[in-house]
Design a protein that fits this description.
Blueprint (H helix, E strand, L loop, with lengths): L1 E6 L18 H12 E9 L5 E2 L7 E2 L4 H9 L25 E7 H22 L1
Parallel strand pairs: 1-2
Antiparallel strand pairs: 2-5, 3-4
């Protein structure tokens, strides 16, 4: 296990030889792998794949729908804007395409602890019912 996984994955449809566990976007498959090997993650994601909007906006906004929200609901993992960098200021420095990005942080160890607490609570409740 690692303390952190820091990733700038390729964006969009990426040819892979491995199982992406049903993820349509490669960045979500990369987050899934990071979850398996690290306690925390920091990712540069295309803005359309995050569950919030910050870069290039006048104010921060949590989304209620979209690919990032769907990913959170599917996995139970939470995307946070923990670093708070507006990546739009670097947009004119890209070569070729210049996608608007977000820097997403995720606390995997905290998620595992919450999950373990729920499992223990469920087991305790089942014992009481018996």
């Amino acid at each position: 296990m690692f303390d952190w996984a820091i990733v700038n994955p390729p964006f969009g449809k990426v040819r892979t030889s491995g199982d992406r566990r049903g993820y349509k976007s490669f960045e979500f498959a990369v987050i899934d792998v990071a979850f398996q090997i690290a306690d925390n993650g920091a990712f540069i994601l295309p803005q359309g794949s995050s569950s919030f909007r910050y870069s290039g906006r006048p104010c921060f906004e949590w989304l209620t729908s979209g690919p990032g929200v769907d990913f959170e609901q599917r996995t139970g993992l939470f995307m946070d804007c923990g670093i708070g960098i507006d990546t739009s200021i670097y947009r004119d420095q890209w070569r070729g395409v210049a996608p608007l990005c977000e820097i997403v942080t995720m606390e995997f160890a905290e998620w595992r602890e919450r999950r373990q607490a729920r499992v223990l609570a469920d087991k305790s409740e089942q014992l009481v019912l018996l």
